[in-house]
Amino acid sequence: MANSDNSCDVETLSRYLAPEETPIDYHIEILRYWNAVRGDRFAPRRDEFSMEKLPAPAIPLINVTDLVPEPLKSTYRFWGTGLTEVFGGDFTGQGPQDVPPKTGGINQQGGCARLIRDRVANFEIKDFETAKDLFGRALILRIMFSNDGETINQGLNSYYFESLTIGSNLTDFYETVFSKVG
Questions:
Q1: Which band of pLDDT confidence, cut at 50, 70 and 90, is reported for residue 102?
Q2: If you ran DSSP here, which 8-state letter would residue 44 be given?
């Protein structure tokens, strides 16, 4: 995609791996806790899962979404402060279509749709590349909740961002990566 403010073309490449393959420590802790709470069920109820039990470094980089399967819709119930830095705003009460880069909202092939369709947690690696090189990456662990034991009605997304051109400041990630995706 070309951004009118920048002459470089940016391609976003996504790949999905088993959630257990995440290299991020706080993702591993979230997954371990979620598995303990859910037990033999495919997903726990949201009220059984306490955000206070998650690793402190994870909380700013989490969002919780209300999910509707048909037609597919996602609304952010909780938006972490670190995500506010990365995306340039608090998107609580809004959906993916409102979050920069505005690429059309929730995708039928995207991570939240996979939660609903496949009924298993997922781990996505999004690489942001130009013709010259990889310049940023987002690693996202997604887990789901079911209040009735049948329907997935919420998801929790835990993010980790790597900017390969600038230091580790979250605002830099938005400026150097997402500002080029359009």
A1: low
A2: -
Instruction: Give the gyration radius of the chain's Cα atoms.
Output: 16
Among residues 58, 17, 5, 16, the alpha carbon closest in space to that of 178 is found at 5
Return the bridge partners of 11, or none: 129
For the whole model, what pTM was predicted?
0.84
Q: Are 174 and 89 in contact (CB under 8 A)?
A: no
Alpha carbon 23 to its chain centroid, in Å, reads 15
Q: How do 134-145 and 154-163 pair as beta strands?
A: antiparallel
Q: What is the CATH number of domain 2-163?
A: 3.30.450
- Cis before 23? omega within 30: no
Distance CA 66, CA 88 (A): 21
Smallest Cα–Cα separation from 86: which of 23, 153, 170? 170
CB 154 within 8 A of CB 140: no
Q: Which two tokens stand for residue 140?
A: 């996202």
Indicate the DSSP class of residue 4: T
Residue 44: predicted pLDDT: 98
Among 154, 160, 179, 135, which residue's Cα sits nearest to residue 47? 154
Q: Which two tokens stand for residue 93?
A: 């009460």
Cβ(43)–Cβ(146) under 8 Å?
yes
